[in-house]
Amino acid sequence: MNSHSRLFTAFDLHKPDRPPILGGWLSAPGHIMALTGCSPDDYWADPFHWGLEAERKLGSDGIITIVQPVDRSDYRIIDTHTLEARAAYNVETTLADIATYPTPDEMCASFDFEAEYTRFKAEHTAMQARCGDILWCPADWELIPCALWYSKYGYETTFTTLAAHPNEYRRLIEFSAERGHQHALLRARAIREGWHPRALLTGEDICSQRGPMCSPKYLRREYFPLLEYAIQPLVEVGAKVVWHCDGDVRPILNDVLACGFSGLQGFQSECGMDLEWIVNLRTRTGDPLLIFGPMSVTTTLPHGTPDDVRAEVKRAMRLCHEQASLVFFTSNTILPDTPLENLRAYWEAVLESQW
């Protein structure tokens, strides 16, 4: 099998010759330089190119994206300006900003579907051409409604606004739900036409390591109905929509699956999100889950040995065998604290495996 067919087979819940591996979250320029032999000047002249070459050297079948740090002095993808912009908001200015967002009806009226579809297809096709033998399988974080807007307004202001002004805050969720629905319509048409992968990653960090950051009761009333609406076009064409799991997602996991999600990605075992019981879950139609994971970037990869990494690969295959469709992926971004030998051991263990 080639990389594309291997992923397509796993997306359809069948077993390929070996589990496919997704990459793209390598946020360690030093490792990329070591893997590809490029110089610092080479890398910073085109981080996407060299990030892609590193994935090719490692042996990835597909990529979600290529993480590109903000500048050559830092590996992070969020800069100081972004943090300062969040800190500048208070409840009053947040409410004023919320009032500028269009209603769902206004958004629909202004959305030029054909023009957006033409643009989307051109961008996706160009990226796949650039990736070549590696499948371009991009995540879409705007596919779903955003429940917690801390990435724009900061944590304190977001939660204070939500608690004190729930009716005004609802406008943000409704706006982003309609935006997500339009994204889903675009991708659903692309899947019907046969040029878009039948699985895609999305999600939101709603949970901390202690559980949901707001009441599950609130989410069930205000958020999950709109989440189901947002992804409905993709569910209707049989796409596998995969939810990103950070923190302790257990209190809301059944709610997510009830909305129509077909897969899960991430898993922090230190938060109780362990593959042993996750593989036994089923979609709302009774199908096995599509698993993107479970290689930990908080425990095994940065702090284990190469043998620990290889053992984790074997363990994941054993647990998913006959229970879930496995696509190897990391739980989150791989940072520079992960030893390069562990990265090599991870990819090599997957590439040498067979069912």
In order across it, which strands form the biggest sheet? 4-7-8-9-10
Structural class: alpha/beta
Helical content class = 40-55%
Please count the helical segments: 17
Give the biggest beta sheet. 5 strands, parallel
How many structural domains does the protein architecture include? 1
Q: How many runs of DSSP E, i.e. beta strands?
A: 10
Q: What distance lies between the first and last C-alpha atoms, to the nearest angstrom?
A: 14 Å
CATH architecture: Alpha-Beta Barrel
Output the helix-strand order: HEHHHEHHHHEHHHEEEHEHEHEHHEH
Unreliable parts:
none
Rg value: 20 Å
Shape: globular
CATH class assignment: Alpha Beta
Brief descriptors of the model:
alpha/beta, 3-stranded parallel β-sheet, 10 strands, 51% helix, 5-stranded parallel β-sheet, 355 residues, TIM Barrel, single chain
Summarize the structure.
It contains 17 helices and 10 strands.
Topology:
Elements lengths: L2 H9 L10 E2 L5 H8 L3 H6 L1 H12 L3 E2 L16 H8 L3 H8 L5 H7 L2 H19 L3 E2 L13 H4 L1 H10 L1 H28 L5 E4 L4 E2 L2 E2 L3 H21 L3 E6 L7 H6 L4 E4 L8 H4 L11 E3 L7 H4 L2 H15 L4 E3 L12 H12 L4
Parallel strand pairs: 1-2, 2-3, 4-7, 7-8, 8-9, 9-10
Antiparallel strand pairs: 5-6
